[in-house]
């Protein structure tokens, strides 16, 4: 009865949805390639702004070019005042991801050249969004929690300022470096649900803000970006090593999913990004002289390997790292989105540059033709 020739793959598992030069999860070599560079090697030598230049301008920057990127982002820190006014109108129990979705959407109304999808204008937009993201993420949380709105501190590097706007405290060098590293690791990751969502929206010739607004909604879910917050709630509930292990055992016995484990592409291997964040967690615990959180995470990792043959993804170790950086739990997923803005913007640019409308078919399981 079918007139659709292709095999149905639930969740589009393994389906090639787009051609890209941006990134690739090479599971054979165990590498995350970003424009040909290994993300883990980049994370050891480079910073988030290097990735921004790499993704948008196609090359790693010289010192001067990195400075120019930073200046361009700083010029855009403030953004339209009306965005903050709109955020103030939201009910106080709004989820910060929903506030972010609204913020990104409202930004579109102040673009002034929304119909211009040329690469140069789209690049401009990407820089504007990247500049405004820390302000929206930090201040939407502050507004929802009746805290004072914080002005960006332009004397600080990009990631230091972002962390400062979140916590209200100037970060130490170690804290700022680890936060910057987490942004780099979250920046781009081939074709997760949010990237697919953004490309699908962009493929109708819709604009970058629309594509990213859809991306926020996608990333909110706990099977995707929302997992980092869910992991931290589990760790808080577990309280200590025994409590956490028992909690995970209980959930496994109830056939519940444990957030922070498993990945569609890595499947039964550890996410290489998680290894980096595990080391960062160790460093933060060492600096504090308290290894309990690290030990809890390692115990959970060992249990999941034994019981389920499942390994941590980035969210499993990013969550306790953010906890150690004194970041409120509800901000973990908005921060992930803020970092991923560069990846999503680059995918929208790529989609617009070589577009074919996404319009798949279905495997129809309904009634055959019925006469009225
Ligand atoms: N905890 C417990 N079991 C898990 C699991 C987890 N975190 N992840 C996968 N599984 C199990 C499933 O229950 C399923 O078992 P079954 O075949 O006995 O039903 C099997 O592994 C395959 O799961 P499936 O949902 O089909 O795989 P997927 O490729 O669609 O899932 C994820 C990928 C990421 C959605 C999944 O691993 C998950 O839900 N992880 C937790 C959420 C998370 O951390 N998300 C962030 C991803 S970066």
Residue runs with pLDDT of under 50 for 5 or more positions: none
**Which ligands appear in the coordinates?**
coenzyme A
Order of helices and strands: EEEHHHHHHHHHHHHHHHH
How many β strands by DSSP? 3
Largest sheet: 3 strands, antiparallel
Q: What oligomeric state is this?
A: single chain
Strand content: under 5%
Structure description:
The protein has 372 residues and is an all-alpha fold. The two termini are 20 Å apart. It has helices spanning 39-45, 48-57, 63-75, 81-89, 96-109, 119-144, 158-167, 173-186, 193-202, 208-220, 227-238, 241-253, 272-288, 292-308, 314-324, 332-353; strands spanning 23-26, 31-34, 37-38. The structure holds coenzyme A (COA). Coenzyme A binds next to loops.
List keywords for this structure.
59% helix, binds coenzyme A, mainly alpha, 372 residues, 16 helices, 3% strand, three-stranded antiparallel sheet
Write the layout of secondary structure elements.
Layout: E1 23-26, E2 31-34, E3 37-38, H1 39-45, H2 48-57, H3 63-75, H4 81-89, H5 96-109, H6 119-144, H7 158-167, H8 173-186, H9 193-202, H10 208-220, H11 227-238, H12 241-253, H13 272-288, H14 292-308, H15 314-324, H16 332-353
Antiparallel strand pairs: 1-2, 2-3
Residues 11, 223-224, 227, 257-264, 308, 310, 313, 315 line the site of coenzyme A.
Précis, in short:
This protein has 372 residues and is mainly α. The protein contains 16 helices and three strands.
């Amino acid at each position: 009865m079918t007139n659709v020739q292709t095999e149905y793959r639930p969740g589009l598992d393994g389906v090639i949805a787009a051609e890209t030069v941006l990134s690739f999860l090479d599971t054979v070599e165990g590498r995350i390639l970003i424009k040909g560079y290994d993300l883990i090697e980049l994370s050891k030598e480079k910073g988030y702004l290097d990735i921004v230049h790499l993704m948008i301008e196609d090359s790693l920057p010289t010192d001067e070019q990195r400075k120019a990127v930073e200046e361009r982002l700083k010029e855009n820190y403030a953004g339209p005042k009306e965005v903050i006014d709109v955020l103030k109108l939201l009910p106080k129990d709004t989820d910060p991801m929903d506030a972010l979705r609204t913020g990104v959407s409202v930004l579109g109304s102040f673009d002034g050249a929304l119909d211009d999808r040329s690469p140069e204008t789209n690049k401009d937009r990407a820089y504007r969004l990247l500049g405004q993201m820390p302000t929206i993420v930090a201040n939407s949380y502050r507004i929802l929690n009746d805290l004072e709105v914080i002005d960006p501190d332009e004397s600080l590097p990009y990631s230091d300022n972002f962390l400062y706007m979140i916590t209200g405290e100037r970060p130490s060098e170690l804290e700022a470096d680890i936060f910057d590293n987490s942004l780099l690791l979250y920046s781009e990751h081939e074709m997760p649900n949010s990237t697919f969502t953004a490309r699908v929206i962009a493929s109708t010739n819709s604009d970058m803000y629309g594509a990213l607004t859809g991306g926020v909604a996608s990333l909110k879910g706990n099977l995707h970006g929302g997992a980092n917050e869910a992991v931290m709630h589990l760790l808080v509930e577990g309280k200590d090593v025994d409590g956490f292990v028992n909690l995970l055992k209980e959930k496994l016995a109830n056939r519940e999913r444990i957030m922070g484990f498993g990945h569609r592409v890595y499947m039964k291997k550890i996410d290489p990004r998680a290894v980096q964040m595990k080391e960062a967690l160790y460093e933060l615990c060492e600096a504090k002289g308290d290894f309990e959180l690290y030990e809890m995470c390692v115990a959970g990792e060992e249990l999941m390997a034994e019981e389920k043959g499942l390994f941590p993804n980035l969210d499993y170790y990013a969550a306790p790292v953010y906890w150690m950086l004194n970041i409120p739990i509800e901000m973990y997923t908005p921060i992930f989105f803020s970092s991923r803005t560069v990846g999503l913007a680059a995918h929208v640019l790529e989609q617009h540059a070589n577009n074919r409308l996404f319009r798949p078919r279905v495997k129809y399981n309904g009634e055959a033709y019925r006469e009225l």
